[in-house]
């Protein structure tokens, strides 16, 4: 473990040796198989810890269920105060937590700091929400009656998160769930356990400031696939929020559906951008490069498919490749680096397999090779790739979590929309155009079929105020802003008769 990582863990309050289970401030060693943890920057060891077993996951679920009995009747503004204080801990330890994000996920420093800022922002959002969990008053057809909707806490929420946003996605769920009256049990990616333990350590600090808050309001379990399945299968967890691959999401959804629970899924992206002839070319190049290579192409909103009008495609290709040639690739901790490493060797192999398949399917590949000069040994660094290929090539239907950008050409806007929507995934999308009709068509019912639809900006990167999520194989879930809080609550329709009569709805007569 490097001195920087050790110091960050100490400042954040993570006990050592590392332990895989924490319920509130109670830390326990895992009873499962050992998990070696390594940095994608240079392969350096962060130490080993034993994984949590399904039995230990059940223990955390039981603690959350017990905490729910108290938390659900705690006034929502008091729950909001807990989130506010947690947000203050994040502000105090922003740099320390960001250092862990860089060390574990390989993000450049500015992106890591931005991810922690996103946590702070969603805490602020949730604090305001704690005084705005509004229901509706509905006109009753019966005299002397009041009809209303009331939103009530749902129960413990299971969160299964991925490595690429190791802290922000949990915060989207946890901050909203907490103000809605729901405890949270978190199973993070095995690739990024330290950041999860750090977040829980800050929960423990917050709990010492508010001793009336039940400890089981927040738990973390570092486990494998069996831990995730235990969460998904538990009847005591009414909502499971899962972020990751479509394959993983299907497994979780099937397990949750068997017990008629709720699942909130954030899965594959394979995001597209249409660039029209009228687009601002300077804006287009900047938008494309950030969206395609940020986080080394390992964002769920990364740009995968560039759909360019045939009249500008060659010019756009050359400008993007020119920008790629100047990209500083290297240690994400260094000032000026814009592209850090892939997360591990499997990610590198996946990228090379996809490029090989693209060549076999008639694609012309520019870049994509491994970078070994001027980068830390032991990491998996690559040059971003642009692949000129036909829109109907099978590889274009797949999402590869790497900086591969497929360049597809179109002749008219209807064809561009058909290409754009012709993949199984439906997360983020963008059109770059100064034609108002094209922009409005893209945003309309016959336009983009994605959950995130942007005009003249990148598909990558989202503000916390809007609901985040997508359609089709992306899973249909919505997290963070807007009215996504309703997924963490149950709705009750209340009828109150304040008269001395008993009229029945629909004019039914039933005299006894």
What does this structure look like?
By secondary structure, this protein is of the alpha/beta class. It has two domains: 283 residues, Aldehyde Dehydrogenase, Chain A, domain 1 (3-Layer(aba) Sandwich); 193 residues, Aldehyde Dehydrogenase, Chain A, domain 2. Strand 8, helix 7 and strand 9 form a beta-alpha-beta unit. The mean pLDDT is 97.
Summed up, the domain count is 2
User: Helical residue percent?
Assistant: 25-40%
CATH topology call of the largest domain: Aldehyde Dehydrogenase, Chain A, domain 1
For the biggest β-sheet, the strand order reads 2-1-9-8-7-10-11
Question: What's the CATH C level of the largest domain?
Answer: Alpha Beta
Note poorly predicted spans: none
CATH architecture of the largest domain: 3-Layer(aba) Sandwich
Radius of gyration: 24 Å
| Fourth-level CATH superfamily of the largest domain | Aldehyde Dehydrogenase, Chain A, domain 1
Strand content: 15-25%
What's the β-strand tally?
Answer: 25
Shape: globular
- The oligomeric status of these chains comes to single chain
Q: What structural category characterises the helix and strand content?
A: alpha/beta
**Main sheet?**
7 strands, mixed
Mean model confidence by pLDDT: 97
Number of helices: 14
Distance between the termini: 79 Å
Summary?
With 512 residues, the protein is an alpha/beta fold. It has 14 helices and 25 strands.
Distinctive features:
512 residues, alpha/beta, Aldehyde Dehydrogenase, Chain A, domain 1, Aldehyde Dehydrogenase, Chain A, domain 2, 2 domains, 7-stranded mixed sheet, globular
